[in-house]
Amino acid sequence: MITQKMKYALKALLELADEARRDSPQALTIEEIATRSGTPKRFLEHILLDLRKAGVVASIRGRSGGYSLLKAPRDVSISELVRRIDGPIAPLPCLSRSAYQPCDDCHDEAACRIRKVFAEVFWSYLVLIDSLTLEDMLAAGNPAAKLLED
Question: Fewest C-beta atoms under 10 Å: which of 9, 47, 113, 143?
Fold first, then answer.
C-alpha cells in the first residue's frame, strides 16, 4: 500500500507533467501545484524537496520561479518513486532488493513457506510496478490495461 505522501507526490508530478505538455510551459509555484492537485501545501514543500533531490523536478528561484519536471514522463519510474518516497516495497524484509534483511524468526529462508508464498505475489507485483512510468499515468484510462493486453 502506498502512503498518502506518495499519493501527494504522484498528484504533484502529474500536474507538473501536464504543465510540461503545454505550448508554453511555466514553472509552477507550490501554491499552484497545491490548488491544481488538491494537495495540502504544507506537505508539498517536503515532497518537492525529495523529488528535487531525486533529480525528478527542478526548482527555479525568483519572481517567476517554481517547480518544473526535469525528466521526461517516460523516464520517471513509478517503482523508483515509491521506493524514494515510501521506502522498501517488499512485503517481507527478506524479499527486499534495496533493504534486504533476514527475518529475525526465520532459520532457513529456502524452506520458509511464508517467504515462498509472498515471494510469488511480490514478484508478480514487481513485474507490473517496475514497468510503470509517469507517462503511463498520464495516459487516459487504466495504465495497467496495456500491460495486461501484451
Answer: 113
On whether the CB atoms of residues 94 and 102 are closer than 8 A, the answer is yes
Q: Are 17 and 73 in contact (CB under 8 A)?
A: yes
Instruction: Identify the segments of the chain with pLDDT beneath 70.
Output: 140-150
Closest CA to 11 of 49, 41, 38, 30: 38
Where in the chain do CATH 1.10.10.10 domains reside?
Answer: 4-69
Helix 30-37 and helix 4-20: axis angle, to 10°? 110
The rounded distance, in Å, linking the Cα atoms of 37 and 147 is 27
Amino acid in position 91: P
The topology under which CATH files domain 4-69 is Arc Repressor Mutant, subunit A (1.10.10)
Q: What pLDDT does residue 106 have? A: 87
Question: How many Cβ atoms are within 10 Å of 69's Cβ, its own excluded?
Answer: 26
- CA 41/CA 13 separation, integer angstroms: 14
Using a 10 angstrom Cβ sphere, with 0-12 exposed, 13-18 middle and 19 or more buried, the burial of residue 126 is middle
